[in-house]
């Protein structure tokens, strides 16, 4: 029987995935490895000249904690609008502006496809929604 040992450190050299997943604070070494959520309220045709954000928040810690915290925040707050519609059997139902699964997918894709070797903000994901 072979014994397999996973390690984030080899010869005092940290590997990026090990830091991102297993370090309690990977930002000590990779200061740019955090999830930033910003909201700009402008007409969709003017998104390139959007100015300052109306909301700005960072999520830090291991990658898994960042994803969980962002998902929880977006699910429990009014970051995206919720619309009410009348149900056929009476009463009202609330529907989010975007499906929860789409938001989860956008968060995971933004984190998974980011280039963690660069310190410049080049890997930003933008969601455009008509006003």
Helix coverage percent? 25-40%
Q: What structural class is derived from the secondary structure elements?
A: alpha+beta
Instruction: Give the distance, in angstroms, between the N- and C-terminal Cα atoms.
Output: 61 Å
The whole-number mean of residue pLDDT values reads 77
Q: Are there runs of 5+ residues with pLDDT below 50, and where? A: 4-12, 119-123
The tally of helices reads 3
Order of the strands making up the biggest sheet: 1-2
How much beta, percentage-wise? 15-25%
Q: Characterize the largest beta sheet: strand count, sense, and whether it forms a barrel.
A: 2 strands, antiparallel
Rg measurement, Å: 19 Å
Q: What coarse outline follows from CA principal-axis ratios?
A: globular
Order of helices and strands: EEHEEHEEH
Number of strands: 6
Number of domains: 1
